[in-house]
Design goal:
Radius of gyration: 22 Å
CATH class of the domain at 13-149: Alpha Beta
Distance between the termini: 46 Å
Bound molecules: S-adenosyl-L-homocysteine, iron/sulfur cluster, FE3-S4 cluster
CATH architecture of the domain at 13-149: 3-Layer(aba) Sandwich
Helix content: 25-40%
Structural class: alpha/beta
Oligomer: single chain
Number of strands: 22
C-alpha cells in the first residue's frame, strides 16, 4: 500500500515560477523533478545551463520546446511514477513531434540507453554528472541522432554554476556541498546512480550562500548524501583525499556558512550515524543560526539488520549518538528514516525498531517498505523474503507509532514562544501565513503585517501531528 508511505521530497513538482533570466532566451524549457532534495537542486543547475544556452523556463508543458524529467530510482514505485509520466509526454509528442523529451537523474543513469532503444520513451538520456552536455545532446537530437551521456565523473560538482532558483518563496534554498556516495548500504541504489563521493570547493559554497543572502534568502540547506564525510583538501583542490594536507571538514564548513550572516538560517541533510562527529554538534550549539534540527536515518533498530544493511553502526552506537545530540544541543529536534521488511527481518527484529522508536521519540520520520533494487548488495546477497503483507503490517505499526510521537513532540511546544521564519501565505487559508521554527516544525498563524523572510515570535496555542498553530506576539512590524 504505497499510499501509506510518507515520501521524501516534493514529488513531481514543477517550477513554481517562470524564469526569463537569459538575455538571449528564445526557446522554452519545462522541467519536472522527482526524488530527493538533491534532484531539486540539480534541476536548478540544469535550468542555469539551459538558460545560458537560450532557454527560458516555463510552467506550461504545452509551450515547451524541451521537456526534461529529473528522476529517482530509490524505490520501485518512484520509477513507476516516472514511467507513467513519460507515457503521458509520449502522447503529447504525437501532437507536437518537434518537442524534445529528455530523462535526467538517477533513473536515466540506471537504465541508460534502454529508455531510448527498447522502450522508446524519450529522445535524450543524461545522467547526474552529464548536465553540462545537455545543450550538445539537444542539438544531437535535432539532427536525428540518439543522445545519451551517462558518464559518471570523479570530480564534477558544478561548483562554478550559479543555479537558477526555481522555488516559489525566494526565502529558502538548497545548496549542494558534495555529490555521490561511497557508502554502499546494501539496500541502496544511490552509489550506482550518483557515482563516487566528491566534495565541492568551500569557497564556492560560501559565495553561493552570500549571494543568496544578498538576494533576500534567509535559509540555506546544505545537501549531500552523507554530509559528515564532507572533506576538502585545500592544496589539492579536493581531488584526492590526503590526510596530511590542511582540510576543511563539515563542522568547519558549517561555521563558515553560519558566518555569512546571523540572519541566515543554516540547515543540512543528510547526516550519517556512523560519521556524525561531536564537532558538528558543538558547531551547532555555538552558532545560533545553525538550526537545532538533525535528520539522522536509523533504518532499523536491530544490530543484525543494520549489519545486513551494511550501515556501519549498531543499535547501541545510534542510541549513543542520540544521547550526544541531546547533551550537546539542548532542545534539538531529531528526525529519521526507517525501512520495514528488509531481507530476513524477523518479528523480533521489527519489534526492536519499535522499541528504538520508544527510546528516541523522534520528532518526525520518513517511513518506507523495503523495495529491492537491481545491482545492489542486498539484491545479490539476500532474498527479498518478507512477504508484502508483513512489510505493510510492520510499516503501519511504525507509522502509527510515529504519529503519536510527532503529536506528542508538537504538544510540548504549546505555550512556548517560537522564533519563526515567515515563508509566505498558508497553503490552506488566505487569512493565515506559515513559516518554520529552527526545529523545522511548520507553524501557521493569522496574517499580520509581515513579509516573507521576516523573523517573528509566535506563541504556540494548539497543534496537530504535522503543524503548530499560534499567534504572533511582541513583533515590531505588527
Ligand atoms: N543518504 C541518505 C538517504 C538517501 S535515500 C542516508 O544515508 O540516509 C533516503 C531514504 O530512502 C533512505 O534513508 C532509506 O530509508 C530509503 N531507502 C533507500 N533505499 C531504499 C530501498 N531500496 N527500499 C526502501 N527504502 C529505501
Ligand atoms: Fe544510500 Fe547509504 Fe549512501 Fe545514503 S549513505 S545514499 S542510504 S548508500
Ligand atoms: Fe532518488 Fe537519486 Fe535522490 S535515487 S533519492 S533522486 S539520489
Amino acid at each position: 500500500m504505497e499510499d501509506k508511505e510518507i515520501l521524501e521530497g516534493r514529488q513531481g513538482e514543477v517550477l513554481e515560477r517562470d524564469q526569463n533570466e537569459g538575455s538571449n532566451a528564445s526557446k522554452k524549457l519545462y522541467i519536472e523533478s522527482y526524488g530527493c532534495q538533491m534532484n531539486f537542486s540539480d534541476s536548478e543547475v540544469v535550468a542555469s545551463i539551459m538558460n545560458e544556452n537560450g532557454f527560458a523556463t516555463t510552467r506550461d508543458v504545452d509551450e515547451a520546446d524541451v521537456v526534461l524529467i529529473n528522476t529517482c530510482s530509490i524505490r520501485d514505485n518512484a520509477e513507476k511514477r516516472v514511467r507513467n509520466r513519460l507515457t503521458e509526454f509520449k502522447k503529447k509528442k504525437e501532437d507536437n513531434p518537434e518537442m524534445v523529451v529528455g530523462i535526467l537523474g538517477c533513473m536515466a543513469e540506471r537504465l541508460k540507453k534502454s529508455l531510448l532503444e527498447q522502450e522508446k520513451l524519450v529522445d535524450l538520456v543524461a545522467g547526474p554528472d552529464a548536465y553540462r552536455d545537455l545543450p550538445n545532446l539537444i542539438e544531437e537530437v535535432g539532427t536525428g541522432q540518439k543522445a545519451v551521456n551517462v558518464l559518471l565523473s570523479r570530480d564534477e560538482t558544478y561548483a562554478d554554476i550559479s543555479p537558477v532558483r526555481l522555488d516559489k518563496g525566494g526565502i529558502s534554498a538548497f545548496v549542494t556541498i558534495m555529490r555521490g556516495c561511497d557508502n554502499m548500504c546494501s539496500f541502496c541504489v544511490v552509489p550506482f546512480t550518483r557515482g563516487r563521493e566528491r566534495s565541492r570547493d568551500p569557497k564556492t559554497i560560501v559565495d553561493e550562500c552570500k549571494d543568496l543572502f544578498d538576494k533576500g534568502y534567509r535559509e540555506v540547506t546544505l545537501l549531500g548524501q552523507n554530509v559528515d564525510s564532507y572533506r576538502w583538501n585545500i592544496t589539492n583542490k579536493g581531488a584526492i583525499k590526503d590526510e596530511n594536507l590542511p582540510t576543511v571538514n563539515f563542522a568547519e564548513l558549517l561555521v563558515m556558512v553560519a558566518e555569512v550572516s546571523p540572519e541566515l538560517r543554516v540547515r543540512f541533510s543528510t547526516s550519517h550515524p556512523k560519521d556524525m562527529t561531536n564537532d558538528v554538534l558543538h558547531a551547532m550549539a555555538s552558532n545560533e543560526n545553525i538550526c537545532n534540527y538533525i535528520h539522522l536515518p536509523v533504518q532499523s533498530g536491530h544490530t543484525d539488520v543494520l549489519k545486513r544493511m551494511n550501515r556501519g553502526y549498531s543499535r547501541e552506537w545510534y542510541l549513543e549518538r542520540i544521547e550526544a545530540i541531546h547533551k550537546i544541543i539542548p532542545d534539538c529536534a531529531v528526525s529519521t528514516d526507517i525501512i520495514s521488511g528488509f531481507c530476513g527481518e524477523t518479528d523480533e527484529e521489527h519489534k526492536d525498531t519499535l522499541s528504538l522508536m520508544d527510546i528516541v521519540a523522534f520528532d518526525f520520520a520518513y517511513m518506507f517498505k523495503y523495495s529491492e533494487r537491481p545491482k545492489t548488495l542486498a539484491e545479490r546477497k539476500f532474498e527479498d523474503d518478507v512477504p508484502e503483507e508483513i512489510k505493510s503490517k510492520r510499516l503501519t505499526e511504525i507509522i502509527d507509532k510515529q504519529l503519536t510521537f510527532s503529536l506528542a513532540s508538537n504538544k510540548t511546544r504549546i505555550g512556548k514562544i517560537e522564533r519563526v521564519l515567515v515563508e509566505g501565505d498558508s497553503k490552506r487559508s488566505d487569512q493565515h501565513m506559515s513559516g518554520r521554527t529552527g526545529r523545522n516544525s511548520m507553524v501557521v498563524f493569522p496574517k499580520g503585517n509581515f513579509s516573507k523572510g521576516d523573523y517573528i515570535n509566535v506563541e504556540i496555542q494548539d497543534c496537530t501531528s504535522a503543524t503548530l498553530l499560534g499567534v504572533a506576539v511582541d513583533n515590531d512590524s505588527e
